[in-house]
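Figure S4 source data
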Amino acid sequence: MPSNNVTRRHSEKECTRKGMFALTTPGGTLCKTKGSIDGALPPAVDPNVINPTRGDFSTVFNNTSVKVMGSSAELSSNLKKFYKETMVVFMDPDCPSCKTMSSTLKSPEVQSAAANVNILVIDGTLAPEIIRDYKISAYPSTMLISNGKVSPMTIGSMSSNEAVNFIKAD
C-alpha cells in the first residue's frame, strides 16, 4: 500500500496534468483551476478555547436575505425546509477573504440574483462538526444545492459578478 506521500504526489501530478495547481491541505490535495489561494485554511478548533478578538457574523448580514448559522442541526433543519436552491458559504469571521465574500453577498447584484435562492452562511468557528462533515479545507468555500444535488465546492472569495454567475450556473 502506498504511503500518504506517494498518494499525495500522485494527486499533485494529476492536478498538473489537468492544467491545475495542487493545494495540499490536512484533508487531502485540492486541485485549483484559477486565481490565487485567497482563503484561509481552517484552524484546528478547540471548542474549549474562546478567542475574545474573533469577529462575529451575527450583525454583518442584517437587512439582507442571508441567514447565518453555527450548528449542524440548524443547517440540516434549514436544508430540509427549503424547496428552492440553496447557496451555502462556509466562512470564518477573522478571514480577510471571508470579509470580502461578506461584502459580495450583501451587494445589490447578488441580493437581486438570489431572489429565488436561499443563502446560508456557516460560521466554521462555531460549527467544527459541519466543517469536518463537509470536508472544508479552506475559507471561504461555497457550494450550491439544487434539487438535492450538490455542486462542486468553490474555494476563495468571489466578486459580485462571479457570485451571480455561480448562482445562475445551475
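Figure S5 source data
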Amino acid sequence: MNVKRFIGRNARDAMAKVRAAWGDDAVVLSNRATHSGVEIMAMPGMPRHSQFGPELEADSQPPSQPAPQASDAMSTLSFERFVRERQQRWTKEEAPAPVPAAAPVARQPQARPFEVPARRAPVEPGRFAAAELQKEMGLVATDTAPTVSDPMPSAATMPASDPPPALGEAVMSELRALRTMINTELSGLSWFDSARRSPLHTRLMRLLIGNGFSPALARHLLKRLPDGDEARGERWLREVITRNLHCVGKDSIVERGGVFALVGPTGVGKTTTTAKIAAGFALRHGAESVGLVTVDTYRMAASAQLRAFGNILGIPVHTARDASSLLDLLKLHERKKLLLVDTVGLGQRDGRIGELLDALPTGRVERLLVLNACAQAETLEEVARNYGARPGQRCVVSKLDEAVKVGPLVDLLVRHRLLVEGIAAGQRVPEDWSAPHARWLVEKALAEPRPSVFTPDESQLALLFTGAGVAMPGAQAGHA
C-alpha cells in the first residue's frame, strides 16, 4: 500500500498535487495545517472492478486521466465550491448493483480498504472525502496522521460518528466521579460555614456523634433545631429524643401478663430475662399464674438454667421440641395469666431465623425482642431487621450495666419506634430488672463523652455530614 504525503501552500495547491499524481480516484487519508502550508496524506485509489466485480469495469476510468470537467472546476471555482459540487454529484449517482452470490471475487491483499480512525467519516474507495476535508480545513489539527500499522475498528462494523462503547463508558464514569467530588466539596464547605455561623449546631452534633448516634438521625434532628442559646438548644434536643423514645407504662408484661416468646441472638440474655420477668410477675400474682416453656433444645445448659430458676420460683418448666408440641403446651397453659417461651438463640445472620419465627403461632404468641446494649450500632441494626422488628413491637434492653455508650441503642429505638418493656442491668433475679424511663435513658445516652481514640476531630466530623442528601433509614424521628 503506497501512502504519500503532499504539501502545498494551501489546500487547493495540495489537492492539485494529489490529483496530478494519482488522479480523481485518489483516496485522501488525512490533512492538517503545518508551518509550511497544508499537508495531505493520500493513497492511490483502487480499481473499481476489484471492488464491485467485472460487470462494473466499463464504468471505471483510468486514474491517470483527470476528468476535464473536474479540471474546469478547479480552474474556475474556489476549492470549497468545487468539492461541494462534486459531493452533490456523487450522491446522485446510482448505487452499484449487488455482487452475485454465485461469482465471488477472490480477495486481493492490495485491494484491502484502508482502515481509518473512528473519529473520521469512512472514505469510500475512488472518492475524495469532500465533506470531511471541508470540515477539517477550518481546524488546526493537533493529532498526527494515522499509520497503516495501527489497527482500527472497521467502518462496516462501527459508524465513525459514534464513539467506541468503552470510551463512552469511561467518559461517563469520569463525569460521575467529577460530580461526586464537586458535591462533596460543596457539602464540606457548607458544613464548615454552618459550623462557623452556628457553634451550637456544631456542639450538639459533636455530642450526638460522640455518643454513638447515627449521622442520619443527628442530621434529621438538628435541621429542626430552633434558634436560641446553648442551654435552650441542648434542652430542646433532649426533649425531642425523650418524646420519641417509647416506653411501656401500666401496660407492662409484669402488670397485665400475656403470652410472649423471647427472641434474639445467642448470648443476649434471653434465659435470664425470662426468669426475671417470671419472678416479678410471680411476686405480684403468685407462681401458679406463670407458665414457662423452653424450645432451646440445642444447648442443654440453657434449659437446665431455666429449670433451676423455675425450681427456685416454684414454676414447672416444659420443653417444646417442635411446632406441634409448642401448640400443645400453649393449649395446656391457656389459663395461665403469663406464659413465657424461651427460644433458641440464633445469630442475626443465621438463615434459620425465619423457621424459628414461623414456628411461633401468629396472633397467639407475641414476640419480645431482646437487645444487647453492648452491641455495635451496625449489629443492633441487623438484629432489628433480621428479626422482623416493626413499629410498636415490644423489646427488652439487656446488659445495660456493661454498655460504654447507650447512644446506638437509643438511636435504634427511636428510628424503629420500638416499645421498651424493661431494662436488665445485671445477673441477679429479680433484683436487676427495672421498668424503663425514657428521660433516664436519654440522659445516659447524651452524657458528655470521654475523650478517646474513637472521638472524631473537626475535620473528621465534617466528612460525616457532607452527604446531606442521604435519607434517614428507619422511621421518621423528628416530631419537634
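The chain has a mean pLDDT of 75. The CA atoms of residues 161 and 371 lie 61 Å apart.
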